[in-house]
Specification:
With about 100 residues, the protein is mainly alpha-helical. It is built from four helices and two strands. Helix 2 links the parallel strand 1 and strand 2. It starts with 15 loop residues before the first helix and ends with a helix.
Length: about 100
């Protein structure tokens, strides 16, 4: 299974979102499409894509890095916690020190 990775980068107001939406629309029907955006932008991106594509995101998923990691781990069957809450506190403490 070959996958294609494409980055859409640019400054503010440079047309990244419009280019992303156009690219997803062009890829429609060619298989599953994963859009990875910042945590704060997932809802806005899903809403914008649904409006542009005509009401649905059947072949396209919008993920943040964290939600993509959870999705992959759920699909692979690995449900264990890698770092307990106490371990996270210890790690933060060490980073601060």
């Amino acid at each position: 299974m070959a996958a294609e990775l494409e980055f859409i980068l640019g400054r503010a107001c440079s047309g990244r979102t419009r280019a992303l939406f156009e690219r997803v629309a062009a890829l429609r029907g060619r298989g599953r499409c994963y859009v990875i955006v910042a945590d704060q932008a997932t809802f806005e991106t899903e809403r914008g894509l649904a409006e542009m594509l005509g009401g649905g995101l059947f072949e396209c998923g919008v993920y943040s890095w964290g939600s993509l990691a959870r999705t992959v781990l759920d699909a692979c069957g690995d449900k264990r916690a890698y770092l307990a809450p106490q371990g996270k506190l210890m790690l933060v403490r060490r980073a601060v020190d």
